[in-house]
């Protein structure tokens, strides 16, 4: 269960387009902007997940990288889907690792070697704001978990469909149903700034 601060949500929901743009200065850290707006992003996750050009929005800080195999960016909708499934999360150790926190660390990136098993992961807790880096994560687990969501749009847009058409037979072409693979146009993802303007 991922909890967000609803008071922060109400304040952020009142931002206008100019105020959102102001957050994206040349030197802005996109991860900090993401953390700040997380209450709105989380409350609006269904809209993001179900809108392809928001789902595939690129986040520079979200990826999985594996030695020898390569890596993948984790787009916005995929990241939210993972967290919604309870994946890429772990209990928050609390701000000073003494005090308990009811929140979850939401992992945004993981990297390492699936062969040696060494892995580092990094994430944040939306409840207490703790940013946590873990040296001994399980790379294999992250790799398996990341495959439960679509990381690339080609998967999302290719689907099997039955249509009325013609079949070729010894009599020539005869009407009949045929199975095709529908490949829709490639998605043009919105920028993260555009997504915020769409959900606020
Ligand atoms: Zn916490």
Between the first and last Cα atoms, what is the distance in angstroms?
Answer: 23 Å
Low-confidence stretches: none
Strand content is 25-35%
Report Rg: 21 Å
Mean pLDDT: 88
- H/E series, N to C? HHHHHEEHEEEEHHEEH
Shape: globular
How are the elements arranged and paired?
Elements: H1 6-13, H2 17-23, H3 30-43, H4 45-49, H5 52-55, E1 63-66, E2 70-73, H6 76-84, E3 89-91, E4 104-112, E5 119-124, E6 131-134, H7 139-146, H8 153-157, E7 158-169, E8 172-183, H9 192-199
Parallel strand pairs: 1-4
Antiparallel strand pairs: 1-2, 3-4, 4-5, 5-6, 7-8
Helix pairs in contact: 1-3
The chain binds zinc ion.
Commentary on this structure:
The protein has 200 residues and is of the alpha+beta class. It has one domain. Strands 1, 2, 3, 4, 5 and 6 form a six-stranded mixed sheet that branches. Helix 1 packs across helix 3. The structure holds zinc ion (ZN). The site of zinc ion has 8 residues, from loops.
Keywords:
34% helix, 200 residues, two-stranded antiparallel ribbon, alpha+beta, 9 helices, binds zinc ion
Short characterization:
This protein is an alpha+beta fold and 200 residues long. Helix content is 34%, strand content 27%.
């Amino acid at each position: 269960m991922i909890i967000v601060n609803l008071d922060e949500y109400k304040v952020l929901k009142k931002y206008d387009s100019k105020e959102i743009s102001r957050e994206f200065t040349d030197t802005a850290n996109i991860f900090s902007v993401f953390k700040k707006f997380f209450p709105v992003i989380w409350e609006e996750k269904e809209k993001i997940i179900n809108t392809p050009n928001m789902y595939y929005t690129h986040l520079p800080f979200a990826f999985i990288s594996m030695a020898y195999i390569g890596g993948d960016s984790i787009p916005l909708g995929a990241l939210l889907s993972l967290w919604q499934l309870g994946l890429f999360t772990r209990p928050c150790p609390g701000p000073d690792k003494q005090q308990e926190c009811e929140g979850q660390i939401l992992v945004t990136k993981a990297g390492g070697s699936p062969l040696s098993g060494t892995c580092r992961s990094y994430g944040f807790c939306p409840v207490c704001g703790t940013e946590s880096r873990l040296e001994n994560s399980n790379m294999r687990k992250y790799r398996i978990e990341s495959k439960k969501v679509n990381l690339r749009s080609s998967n999302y847009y290719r689907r099997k469909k039955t249509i009325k058409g013609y079949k070729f037979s010894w009599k020539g072409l005869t009407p009949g149903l045929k199975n095709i693979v529908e490949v829709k146009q490639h998605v043009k993802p919105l920028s993260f700034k555009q997504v915020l303007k769409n959900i606020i």
